[in-house]
Write a structure and sequence with these properties.
By secondary structure, this protein is α+β, with helices and mostly antiparallel strands. It contains 11 helices and 6 strands.
Length: 211
């Protein structure tokens, strides 16, 4: 079991690095069909902001992605304060797990009370190093889950929910297959694809184009 866990962590860490390097610098690509993009997945979308906001941002992220964590720790607070809370941006967050640990983290966030989803995502990114990259991912996630209200029983019930896992992966598969998401974080700003951990200045410039 120990060797399996070590191999698991090695492969997932390499996958995260590989995807993370691709997402290190912002890159711009073609737009997608915004109506298709805004169709929610099987679990429904997690959304913040005014539904009538002039700008809609869709983010595809992985909970084990270092660039995603940097974005949510560095850019996200200002984005929320300056644009989401002021009614300028409607923000949709979507799961794009790069490895099984990220998938498990998303499942836990989905199993928690619905109104706690974004709070839990924020905590996961803030404490990413404590649970995402360890020699025993099961125990690390279990310990972390207890901090956010899970018991061992509810933790195991969540992570053995095959329907939940399938639904999380369906969001990733559709993002990759239909919208060309191949790194994290990837954003769609009114349908325009932007990849990389954008600063608030970079994000603000793109938003202002649509205001």
């Amino acid at each position: 079991m120990t060797q399996t866990r070590r191999h698991f962590l090695k492969t997932t860490a390499l996958a995260t690095v590989a995807f993370g390097v691709a997402a290190a610098a912002p890159s711009f690509a073609q737009s997608v069909d915004n109506d298709e993009l805004l169709k929610p997945g099987p679990l429904g979308d997690k959304i913040l902001g005014d539904e009538n906001a002039p700008v809609t941002i869709v983010e595809y992220a992985s909970m084990t992605c270092g660039h995603c964590a940097n974005f949510h720790k560095g850019t996200w607070p200002a984005l929320k304060t300056q644009y989401i809370d002021t009614g300028k941006v409607r923000f949709i967050f979507r799961e794009f797990p790069l490895d099984p640990v990220a998938a498990a983290a998303f499942m836990l966030a989905r199993c928690a009370p619905a109104d706690k989803y974004f709070d839990i995502v924020d905590i996961m990114f803030e404490q990413q190093r404590t649970w995402a990259f360890t020699d025993n991912p099961y125990q690390s996630l279990l310990d972390f889950s207890k901090q956010i209200g899970f018991t061992q029983e509810s933790f195991e019930e969540c992570l053995t929910n095959q329907g939940m896992l399938d639904a999380v992966n369906a969001v990733k598969d559709r993002g990759a297959g239909e919208f060309g998401v191949n790194s994290t974080p990837t954003f769609f700003i009114n349908g325009e694809k932007v990849s990389g951990a954008l600063s608030i200045d970079d994000m603000g410039k793109k938003i202002e184009e649509y205001l």
